[in-house]
Design brief:
The protein has 143 residues and is mainly α. It is built from 8 helices and no strands.
């Protein structure tokens, strides 16, 4: 439902987030070829509770998301972003493209993002100041 002026009510936003995170968990579980029962056991949550999360009936806490991420062998950060707990990391279009690639696992995405960010950090370091020319180099240039 929306409020006057087209704004979404806060409770509706929570419902949308719960639905989105549930769908994301279901997709990750499906791509990992893990059954609901197997994931509930790996994550240490009950089968019915995990089912409710996947259907968007329940919005899991950060702690439960961490357990689910561990069971799926994906980064907890990926689930936190999907759940709206963390903001989407920066990185521009390259980072967005890596995160959006459905053919990569979460682990592969994270490794690529880590390498990409390390290159960006390396390139941000200020270049060394040029060294002063020796007397001989100055003399040779003026000759």
């Amino acid at each position: 439902m929306t409020e006057p002026g087209g704004a979404q009510r806060p409770m509706d936003k929570v419902a949308d987030i719960a639905s989105d995170i549930g769908e994301y968990i279901r997709q990750q579980r499906s791509s990992a070829k893990i059954s609901l029962r197997q994931l509930s056991k790996l994550a240490g949550v009950s089968n019915p509770y995990l089912s409710q999360i996947e259907r968007g009936v329940r919005k899991p806490s950060a702690e439960i998301l961490q357990q689910i991420a561990k069971g799926l062998r994906i980064s907890a950060e990926a689930l936190y972003v999907q759940a709206g707990i963390l903001d989407l990391p920066t990185g521009g279009p390259v980072g967005d493209a890596i995160r959006a690639d459905a053919e990569l696992t979460e682990r592969q995405k994270q490794v690529l993002l880590d390498v990409y960010e390390s290159f960006r950090r390396e390139n941000k370091t200020p270049p060394r100041a040029p060294q002063a020319k020796t007397t001989q180099e100055t003399t040779e240039e003026s000759a």
